[in-house]
Design a protein that fits this description.
Layout (H helix, E strand, L loop, with lengths): L36 E12 L1 H11 L6 E6 L21 H11 L4 E7 L12 H8 L5 E6 L12 E4 L3 E5 L21 E2 L2 E2 L3 E2 L1 E6 L1 H18 L22 E12 L8 E2 H12 L3 E6 L5 H11 L6 E5 L7 H4 L2 H15 L5 E7 L9 E2 L2 E5 L3 E5 L5 H5 L3 E7 L4 H19 L3 H11 L2 H8 L6 E4 L6 H6 L3 H4 L7 H8 L8 H24 L2 H4 L2 H9 L7 H15 L3 H12 L1 H26 L1 H32 L5 H10 L4 H31 L3 H34 L7 H15 L1
Parallel strand pairs: 2-3, 3-4, 9-16, 13-14, 14-15
Antiparallel strand pairs: 1-10, 1-11, 2-5, 5-6, 6-10, 7-8, 11-12, 11-19, 13-17, 15-20, 17-18, 18-19
Helix pairs in contact: 5-6, 6-8, 10-11, 11-12, 15-22, 16-24, 16-25, 19-21, 19-23, 20-21, 20-24, 21-23, 21-24, 22-23, 22-24, 24-25
Length: 753
């Protein structure tokens, strides 16, 4: 396959249809609204795929003299920028490479800021203890995990700034499973991480310098201050030019805009510049809208595109994305949202001006090219490259950063934007950029050029209609839960899945758990400091109980007890505690999780055999209403139900079996929902047993630390309930809750002012 990745490839601008007098006005950057700032840039280059970006970065970093900022969603110390071998005499791994640079230049300071990720991402990342140890290898290298964000949010900016003179911005993190060249060949030998191959990966980054890079350095310094509480060292003036000598720019002497997304966090207002940028850009399109993106789930973006499809002389719309989502959970969330929006746009497309494409490479199925890029090109007048997906969370909840180049009618900039679009589509269609440009000039349409150059016997773009089975569509929650645009509210989640009457008294349950833990701790303390020790030898009793795990077939016998509990209504909490005491915290927790899932499966099958009518008679009104919610929302509702139980475990299992939820969703939701409680129980039992065996300051301190978890949760829940009660009392009866209510109150205050 041909390589089409040479930076700086240019071609004459595409010849478009004449501008009619009814055409929309062009896009105008407005700092404070659709961008943060507009700054001069001496050089601008687009880097397609990680091979090009990582090579340029490897070439630029050794030229740093004073400061390097690295921001990312995921940063792995083990990744290699140039897996083929850099031939520069420096170590291959990222951490060792950066430490070697710090050794060479004593004045150099390196600041690395990565998202303090959610535990659901743990299996895809470098383990936290390993990362902390690895990144503390040099005193001039500072590493932080940034958890300063609202619930459910993430830090998604991917920025590298060198000496405030050169910056890289885009969709690529410095981590594993990102490297690929633009051939995306099936079975490429270098596309391996941790000994396992991974599918082709397509992404886009840009490089820029000048005052625009300095502005991005300011952004990085502000992020570092918020995350660490310490001000990074001010960047001093340097004499060197860190721009990679081998990187030819697409543009020189151009002004670029920087747009951000930042959620509301504590006292800081939210920033939605990218949201407004995309809305304004789509509204300004006259001939073509070209988008490459990992996700397409934003209803607001779909509304803007649908409005353009409604115009008789509106633009063609081309969206390039990946065929398959990463895993079952993503397919049933972001995949469902994409399919819903696709159906809407197809229904609105009466003139065949919209098409969703996926890259097609022979021999790759059932895998697909993971289109991870975040690029939008409007006519020949605007290109934006950054970290923001076409998703709700990228427009309001996560931190994002995009770079925008606007032509302003300058033919030189228009030609460069058209050439960059041609490079992207030339790669996907496996044609030279000049060939694509010529076809656009001949057909006077980007979409028509794609259709003309498509082929079925080789690498190409394939029109794709995302599947959306009716049962999956009906079972998936609304977009505001699968892809939130605002911080996640636990009360909103409960309201979505469980009716008001079915909500348990959470505070009372947590309070009882804390009281029980304190009672156990008190007993352990009394054992050490009162005559209670003389009444019974508790440590000997523990020793006898713990020897039970050495009995033959003890784990199988324990599973039998869980099955019996499914029929006899034996409290599952008691079974979990007994399992952990007998088999220890690690093995016992694993067995307890298996036992609860096994018991759930048995109860589910029993409920399915009994039938809905029989179960409804003794399930009660609360459980029957929850059964309806389970049928609608599947695995997510199961997780909520297990985290916040509303009835005996065995009875709930029967009702679940009689509901419309699938066995797979039932078992998966049970495992995810029960795991946190089992882990807490294992830690608690382990610490109580340790305090009994070896009473002392350290063991009691660790026990107190374990007790702080439920106690802290209780305090947080009480504070939230008190605040909501006060807010409900102060809110007028006709003032709706949520974002609309807040907007209405703000409008009323402005009118009063």
């Amino acid at each position: 396959m041909r390589q089409h990745n040479a930076p700086g490839t240019t071609a004459p601008p595409a010849t478009g249809p004449p501008h009619d007098c009814q055409a929309p006005a062009g896009f105008t950057p407005e700092p404070g609204r659709n961008c943060w700032c507009v700054e001069p840039c001496q050089r601008f280059a687009m880097l397609v795929d990680a091979d090009a970006y990582f090579r340029a970065l490897r070439e630029a970093l050794p030229r740093a003299e004073h400061t390097i900022f690295i921001l990312g969603w995921d940063i792995d110390s083990r990744m290699e920028l140039v897996p083929q071998g850099a031939q520069d005499g420096l170590p291959a791994g990222l951490r060792d490479f950066l430490c070697a640079l710090a050794d060479q230049r004593p004045e150099l300071r390196i600041y690395i800021l990565s998202w303090d990720y959610a535990m659901v991402m743990a299996m895809e990342r470098e383990w936290l203890p390993s990362a902390s140890a690895h990144w503390q290898a040099h005193r001039h290298l500072s590493f932080r995990l940034d958890g300063n964000h609202p619930p459910g949010a993430s830090h998604h900016q991917k920025v590298v700034v060198i000496d405030n003179k050169l910056a890289f911005v885009g969709g690529l993190d410095l981590t594993l499973r990102r490297w690929d060249d633009n051939c995306h060949a099936p079975g490429a030998p270098l596309r391996v991480a941790e000994g396992k191959p991974y599918p082709p990966f397509h992404d886009v980054q840009c490089a820029l310098d000048g005052p625009a890079a300095a502005a991005l350095g300011t952004l990085c310094a502000a992020r570092w201050l918020r995350a660490s509480g310490s001000q990074p060292r001010p960047v001093a003036a340097t004499s060197s030019d860190p721009w990679p000598p081998g990187l030819a720019p697409e543009l020189t002497d151009v002004r670029v805009a920087i747009a951000r997304t930042m959620p509301m966090c504590e006292d800081e207002p939210g920033v939605s510049e990218i949201r407004m940028l995309l809305r304004d850009a789509i509204a300004s399109a006259r001939h073509s809208i070209y988008m490459e993106n990992q996700y397409f789930s934003s209803r607001e973006i779909a509304n803007a595109l649908e409005a353009r499809l409604g115009h008789e002389e509106g633009p063609d719309i081309v969206l390039v994305s990946r065929r398959n989502e990463s895993g079952w959970l993503e397919a049933h969330s972001m995949g469902v949202l994409r399919a819903r929006l696709y159906r809407r746009l197809r229904a609105a497309d009466t003139q065949e001006r919209f098409c969703l494409y996926c890259p097609s490479i022979p021999g790759l199925m059932p895998e697909c090219v993971n289109v991870h890029s975040k690029v939008t090109v409007i006519d020949d007048d605007l290109i934006t490259i950054g970290s923001s997906n076409l998703s709700n969370r990228s427009l309001g909840l996560d931190t994002e950063c995009n770079i925008v180049v606007v032509s302003g009618g300058d033919p030189r900039v228009q030609a460069a934007i058209a050439a960059m679009r041609a490079r992207l589509l030339g790669e996907h269609l496996d044609v030279a950029p000049e060939t694509f440009q010529a076809e656009v000039a001949a057909t006077r349409s980007v979409l028509a050029a794609i259709r003309k150059l498509q082929r079925s016997d080789g690498r190409s773009l394939e029109a794709y209609e995302p599947p959306l089975p009716d049962d999956v569509d009906a079972a998936s929650p609304a977009a505001n839960l699968l892809d939130p645009i605002e911080p996640i509210d636990s009360d909103q989640v409960l309201a979505e899945f469980v009716s008001h009457e079915a909500r348990p008294r959470v505070l009372g349950r947590v309070g009882m758990m804390v009281a029980l833990a304190l009672l156990l701790a008190g007993l352990a303390f009394a054992w050490r400091h009162t005559p209670l020790r003389e009444w019974a030898d508790f440590r000997a009793l523990l020793s006898v109980v713990e020897q039970l795990d050495e009995m033959p077939l003890a784990p199988l016998a324990m599973m039998g007890v869980y099955l019996a509990g499914a029929v006899t209504m034996l409290p599952v909490t008691l079974l979990i505690l007994v399992t952990v005491v007998i088999f220890g915290p690690l093995y016992g927790a694993a067995l307890a999780l298996c036992g609860t899932v096994l018991s759930t499966g048995a109860g589910y099958l029993a409920g399915r055999l009994l039938g809905r009518n029989a179960v409804r008679r003794f399930g009660g009104r609360r459980l029957n209403r929850v059964s309806h919610q389970l049928g609608k929302h599947g695995v997510v509702a199961m997780v909520v139900l297990r985290l916040v139980p509303i009835a005996p475990f065995a009875l709930v299992n029967l009702v679940i079996g009689a509901s419309r939820i699938s066995l797979r969703d039932c078992l998966l939701g049970t495992a995810l929902g029960m795991l946190p409680g089992i882990v807490v129980a294992a830690c608690l039992v382990n610490r109580v047993a340790a305090a009994a065996r070896d009473p002392g300051l350290v063991t009691f301190a660790l026990l107190a630390l374990v007790l702080l978890v439920p106690a802290s949760l209780l305090l947080v829940l009480r504070r939230r309930r008190r605040r909501r009660s006060e807010g409900a009392a102060a809110r007028p009866q006709d003032d709706p809750p949520g974002p609309r209510g807040r907007l209405a109150r703000l409008a009323a205050l402005r009118r009063q002012a």
